[in-house]
Amino acid sequence: MKNTAQPLLEEYQIGNLKLKNRVVMASLTRGRATNVGLVPTPLMARYYAQRASAGLILSEGTWVSSKAIGFINVPGIFTQEQVDGWKLVTKAVHDKGGLIFSQLGHIGSASHPDFFDGELPAGPSAINPQSHSFTPDGFKDTLTPREFTVAEIKQTIQDYKQAAQNAKEAGFDGVEVHAIAGMLIPQFLSPATNQRNDEYGGSIEKRARIVFEILDAIIDVWDSTRVAIKFSPVTFSHVGIVIPDKETIPMFQYILKKLNDYNLAYLHIVGPAEDLTGTAVEVLQDNYFSHFRRHYNGRLMANLGFTQESGNAILQEGIADLVSFGAPFIANPDLPKRFKYNLPLSEGNRDTYYSGGENGYTDYPEAIYDSAVRKD
Ligand SMILES: Cc1cc2nc3c(=O)[nH]c(=O)nc-3n(C[C@H](O)[C@H](O)[C@H](O)COP(=O)(O)O)c2cc1C
Ligand 1: which residue has its CA nearest to atom 22? Predict the structure, then answer.
């Protein structure tokens, strides 16, 4: 239905999936898989079901294999137990009329030996990403990783494929590849962490190769209109040495040109968190999402710092097709309803973002509004 006042509240079609609005819940790691098997729990099912009024939910980043881990209490999707745990989540969301994609991730070298019985994690090259890993003993500095062998890269691609297959078995509606700064894929894209001189390093084409091999593997399992990818091309903070450089813009132009042939569910782009003036990507400062719109023919999902007003505006202007909200969904489980009735938003407590348990997770109430006057 057309909603000219608030395009965020319009229905939206992706292939044969009908989203009831264009308010997407972005992936939010919440550290609630507090068990040795990293299995999704009934508490997580309740949390996601509370947010089922989003047009689409993207699950928290989820490990594709035991080698992909690098942050405590984050669930995986590589064991049968985990798949069974996710079934609870997808059922709870579907029972409330929602849709949910699984976000598939691998943290690469930004992990820590504490997750691997003292063994080093692997990365594109033996270069310390100079980042931090949230271990069971708190945040620790990353170390110099082992370099992936080509056989390990091929295995990792198969891990994504298997995880995508598992997501299907678990009842998800699709998958999103987690490729934002800090994760394995940007470590391959960046010359700061990828100095390989084989088919996975060197030129832009070779550094980007893994993106397409992962997508091709997943599209063997899912229709392309159920597969998406999320990039943050201009993230500077908290991600060590994987930051934008003079090849970032040509790199993404190359990636987008190739993605134009993929007919994905959508391309998810995280915006700049800071002023880009004086950086290698300064030219994107005033036309960031329009730049991606210009180079990408498919559905575009915009993210970072959006509000009801700016989200409606970017859709109205035709610069994006969908808008995702991360932090606002933490304390506002009924975000679309709050937009619909112009209700105030609640602020989430950062101390409980990753703390485990119900507190600051499933105990944020829906907004109170006068249901006698307002019918929905
Ligand atoms: C607590 C928290 C956890 C997050 N976890 C993930 C994650 O697992 N995967 C991901 O792609 N992004 C993650 N993000 C980033 C969000 O999806 C989103 O890109 C970011 O918060 C910007 O959107 P916002 O301004 O609407 O919050 C996380 C953000 C927060 C605040």
Answer: 304
